[in-house]
Structures are given as structure tokens and as C-alpha cells.
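Weekly sync notes, structure subgroup
Attendees: PM, AL, DS (notes)

Item 1: joint prediction request from the bench team. They want all three components modeled as one assembly rather than separately. Inputs as received:
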Amino acid sequence: MYLKYRKLKNLIFHFSLYLCAALVLIPLVLIIFFVFKMGATSINLDFFTSLPKPVGEDGGGMKHAILGTLYMVSIASVISIPLGLLCGVYLSEFGKGKVATLLRLTIDMLTGVPSIVIGIFAYITIVVPLKSFSAMAGGVALSIIILPIVCRSTEEILKLVPGHIREAGLALGLPRWRVIFNIVVKGNLSSLTTGVMLAISRAAGETAPLLFTAFGNMYLSYEIDEPMASLPVQIYNYAISPFDDWQRQAWAGSLVLIVLVLGINIFARTLISLKHIKFRYRG
Amino acid sequence: MNNIVLSVKDLNVWYNDFQAVKGISIDYPEKSISAIIGPSGCGKSTFLRCLNRIHEEVPGARAEGEILLKGRNILGSKIDPVQVRRSIGMVFQKPNPFPSMSILENVTLGVRLLGVRDKSKLMQVAEQCLRKAALWDEVKDKLSQLGTSLSGGQQQRLCIARALAIDPPVLLMDEPTSALDPIASLKIENLMSDLKKDYTVIVVTHNMQQAARVADYTSFFVLGELIEHGACSDIFTNPKEQKTEDYITGKFG
Amino acid sequence: MINENESFIEESTKFNNLVDSNCTKSKVFNFSYQLQDKINYYLIKSFACLVILLLIGLVAMLIYSALPAMEEFGLGFAFGDDWNPVEDEFGALPFLFGTLITSFLALMLATPVSVGVALFINEVLSKKLAAVVSLFVEMIAAIPSIVFGLWGVFYLAPFVKETLTPVLKSSLGFLPFFQGASFGIGILTASLILALMIIPTITSICRIVFKTVPTLQKEAALALGSTRFEMIKIALLRPSFSGIMGAIVLGLGRALGETMAVAMVIGNSPSISASLFSPAATMASVIANEYTEADSDLHLSALCYVGFLLFIVTFTINGLARFIVWNQSKKVGG
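Output from the run, pasted for the record:
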């Protein structure tokens, strides 16, 4: 009798675990389903090749926003990938002293800073002195967001390289910097690329820090010191507008964004399974 | 034959407060194989690692004394350890080919980073070293495969070839066969005997039979001290010290 | 020093018939190797210092820009419940309230589900299925928050308004939390979205924590004849308690800073109300909404002050989480 009761409890427990999984996976499926359903009906070639049209006119697209996102993500990458890699190398190869402890703390804190606060920082340091919203400010804000991700993934990947690999390099009579860059870093280039790609996919989806740094516009711009549209901000502006046309465009934009972000993400993850790397703090 | 290439004088090594090697002095003649045996934790690996200053990789390690390579003290503060290691190569306990590098890249990396860019020259070095390491015939058709795709014994010979590529007169081996099966070990042993023609080899081993088979000279360490050093034939057949005899006959260790 | 090294090169290369000394000497830089390493080390270190300075600069600039509002309102800013840009009257209490209540609710919803999912992946599923399901869970973390927001506005909000609200009102309507009209957007919707967004964070840390429990202990429990549920309760959940706490606090840190999804579904009204159906605003959402439109300097500065408060809150929470996780790993790692 007692055993039956225990077994029943066990059964209920198992059932509740399945329920939990369902509670998580159903919204995910719903979100992706609706984005694809709403996006697919609004998306067409025009969306990629033309600029927005005034309300009421048919057609129009987000060419400027797609290019803007690519442009600003590139700025962010150029700044933070080398910096993040070097900091990761510093932490894994020389990670003992005071500076390293401080850097580790800094990276931890930077991971935790809300992205909107980073937006404020970019606004104060770049938008205010230049007296204009600019792609530069947006790129810098994004770069601060992905810097800790690149640094942390680099550190964790390089830490997995066993010490005797480094010793083997040193025993060949190579200076330490050769060992670090030509053996340790180069030997793990594919895993490092995965970490970098995950960071980039995150930057591509960020909205909050771009709102008042790159701001957005309705025309095509390649100027680094002028406002620039981006996919997420454009989606936001369209989503909160009262016009059906624009809301449809927002869904189409979301479809492009989600395919872009999840695409990079899944590609990076399946390319190399990053079992040991814990991207825990920022998704 | 009696040309001394490496001479250790009163070497002491500390890890922080712990003294791992106590006042050891040994001379290594050119083109010979010398073995170091002893129970675990007797400081034999530490001693070996000092010989090319790779011990500096361990935080808190510090060596005092003299190690003379052709009469020049390599422990001197003005000597660049990188230069020392170029003259004294090392093979490690675990086969450790560089990750994501082909067999060819593994062998030629050292020379390439020294500034040799000429492809045919690199190829020449690779072939020569792989031949010396008795690996050429097995890998000549798959030089572009990953070094880590080879079997354990082949990997270890690849590591030997890699160390030979920069052509160091002295080669250190830290228990090179302990991670390998008997057949692969035998191949490495044969290889060591071949290497003796051109190189001075110093090998740490926990396998006494191996020392007896391949070495010309053997040193016996216990607890960081050198108990006995001499020609192999003497040590294994007619040891002077009681401790050595006990160890060799299996009474202790 | 250089001379001594040069002689070493000659000595080592004269053995070599292939690598002639000319080749060896054509080094990339004309520095000794020790110098090369030193330059490289200090170069990398200077970049590390740059990043540290960046964070210091970030905090300093935040304080600097919030200074006018700090002088005007002092610490009372955090407790003033009046936010009126038209009359230059600012108090951050409504936003503190909004941030805390949405994050708290999100945690209440997300914690049991996350722990459940973590157990489900680690203990129930086969290795292959576990990889697939955990990939799905991590995909949630990868979805941009603007997409969550869009979905929240057009699907979740109507669902909350038309389905969830009537159910809650009829069953729990006697509580003050579930009274009043629902417009779909409001605290409840924001909390639901937030819960969904932090589930991957909590799940992945819980999984790491569960993995630190030795298999031996689990098997011992099973060998004693306990059911799987009892095993999980005794041998898994109990020893990982503080680790789970750390995961929750880290999830909280993420929820506090989330901006866009919340800004789109919370309604953005700086008011404090007991009803979960009513609109509110969070610290992050008010910055997102008003920053570009702020026309007085004091307004801008007040928003920076809010940002600074947000920074302090998340900083404290993340520090706490790290402390808990660090303590746990010290205990397990021995």
C-alpha cells in the first residue's frame, strides 16, 4: 500500500517534469510559428531591396535597416573581437596577477550591466560630444555588449588547452608569444570562431542600446557620423505604430531578424559542439 | 666519446619551500643515452625539466646550481631560456601533437617560426626528421592529416620528429613510453638507440628493464638525491649502493 | 646579453645542416626573445587595463550625467512617487516598484519550471534527446527581445486579456492583485514574457549545478530502494540547494535589466497599483521610452539617475549571485 503511494508520487513527479518542458517549449514554438506565419505573408523581394514608403503607399522594405544592422554589427566586431580575444588570452595565459583578477571582475560586471545602461553611456560619450546620433555610437554600444561574451568564451576555450601543449611549444625553443598565438590560439580557431559568432548573433538582435545612439532613419546611409537604421529599432518603431502596413513590415523584419540570429546561432553550435563552454550569463 | 656535452653541478630545485632536487651533479657525455630511474616523486622529472629550463613554467619553482651546456651555464640570469630550449629539445610523457595542425605542420612548426619559409626546404626538414623518427613510411601519404589522428605510438614518434626538427644536440625524454602499449614502446626504444648516433639523449623512465635495454649510463634517484650514477652494466649487475640493489631487485620502491 | 644569445644560436645551428644560421637569424623582429615576450605581455596587459578603465569610465560617466538630478533630488529620488516631466518633478519609486514586481513575479513563475526542465533534461531524457531539448531551450535565450515584445503585444496580451484574466478573476478575484480592468498589457503580461526569457538562464545553471553532484550519490540513493523522485529529492535537490539559489539570483539579474520586451507590453505608466492587470513602467522601460524625447536637461539627468539606480541594483544582485555560486563551487570542488 505504502509502496503504491510512493510510486504514485513518482509518477506525478515525472508527469510534472514533462509539463515543465511543455510549458517552455510551447511558447517557443508559438513565437516561431507566429513570426513565420505573419512574416511570410508580408515578406517579398521588395522588402530586401527597397526603402520604406510613406504610410498608405503599398510596398516598401527595410533595405536600409538590414544594411544598417550589418554595418553596425561590423563596427562592433572590429572593436570588440580583437579586444575580447586579447583579454581572453590574457586571462587564460597570464591570469594570475592583480590585473587579471580585476579584469575578471570587470568582465563579470560588464556582462551584468543592462544593455540600456550601456546605451546611456554611448549617448553621453559619443552622441553628446558629436551633437548627433550616429552609427558610430550604435556600434560602440554594441561592442561593449559583446566584449565580455567574446572575452569569456575565449578564456574558457583556451583554458581547456592542456598545459603540456604549451610546454611542448616552449620546448621547441619558441618564444611565449609564438606559443600563445601560433599554437594555443591557432589550434583552437574553430571553437573561438563559434564563440565570436554567438556574440555577433547577440549584437544583431539588440535594440535597447541603439534607440538613442544610432536612433534610426528612413533612408539609406553609409555615414558613420549620421543616424542609421537598424533592423531591431525599425521593427520597434513599426510595431508601436498604429498602421497595419507598418505592423506587417515589423513582422517581416522579425522574420528576417530571427532567421539571421537563430541561423548564426544554430550554425555556430552545430559546427562545433561547445559542450564545455558555458554561456551562462547572457543567453 | 668522452666529450662532455652537458654537465650538471650541484643542482638544487625548490617548489616554494619544498626541495625536490638536492645537490645533484652528473656529467652527460656526447652521443650517449643516459637514463634516470627512481621511485615516484623522487624528483627525476623535475631534474629533467630543469635541463631546458621548462621548470620555470611551474609557479614557485626555482633552481640553483650550474648546468653547463658546452661549458656555458644555461641557468645564468642573462641566458634566454628560449635559446636554451632550442639547443635542448624535449619529448613529454603524454604524446602531445599540436591541436588542429597537420602532421606536416606539426613537424615543421619550429623551423617555420624560426623564419624558414621556403616550402621545399620545409618539406626536406619534415622528411628528414620523420625518417629519423622512423615514422616517414607510415605517414608519407597522409602528411596533411591531423597529427591527433595518429595512434598513440605514432603520435609520440611525431613529437620526437617535431623536437628533432630544430636539431637540438641534446634531447630530453620524460617517460616517453609510459602512455604507450608494449609494441609501441619497443619501437620508441629502437628509435632511441638510432638517435644515439647524432644526439645526446637523457631519458626518465620508471621502467628499469627499459633503462637496462637502451641506456649507456643510468642514475638512480631517491627523494631528490642522487644515490648512484654509472654505466648501465655496473648499476644493474653490480650496484655499489644497497639502496640501488634493493630497488633493482624489487625490494623497495 | 644579446651577444651571449647570439653565440647560443650559432652553437645550436651548427649541428643542423638544413636550418642554416642565416635563416635562423632572420627573425621577425630584431629583439631578443625575452624582450619580444615582454613587449607582447605588456601589450596584452595594456588592453586588459583598457577594458578595466572602460568599466570605470562607464560608471563615472553615468554618475556624472546623473549629477544634476542627484543634486536636485538627493537620495529621496528613489522614494519619490511622482514622475512628471512637464513640471520637472521626478521620483523613481514607480519604476523601482515596476522593476521589482515584474522581476519577482517572473522569478516565481520561472523558477519551478526551470528546475523542472533542468531535471527533465538531465535525469529523464536520453543523451541525444537531451542535446536537442537543451538546444531548444537555449534558442529561447537567443531570440532577440524585440521579437518577444512583438509577439507579446500581438498574441500574449490579447490572450491575457481574453483568456487568462477571466479565469484568474473568477478563481482568485477576491484578492486585490486580481481586481480591476485588464487591457492585456500590464504587469502580468510583462512578467510572463520575462519569465520565459529568464528560463534558459536558470535552466542552464541548474544543469551545471546538478552535474556537480557525483553519480555515486545518486546511485547510492537508488540502491537503497528509493524511487527516482525520492532520489532526486534527497541526492540531487538537497545538495544543490545553494547552487539553485545562485541560478535564481542570476536569473533575477537578467530580468531586472531586460528592456525592450517589457517596454512593449507593460503599458508604460508611472503608477503604483496592487492589481497585476494594471499598466506600470520599469526602470529600463522608462529610459527606453523617454530618453530621446526628454527636452529638459533635468529630465535627461533624472533618466540617467534611473539608469544609475538600475546599474546599482543589477550590480548588487549579480554580485550576490556570484557569491552564492562561488561558495557552492568551493564546497563541491573541495
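Discussion: Chain A has two domains: 2-42, 46-271.
Action: AL to compare against the crosslinking data before next sync.
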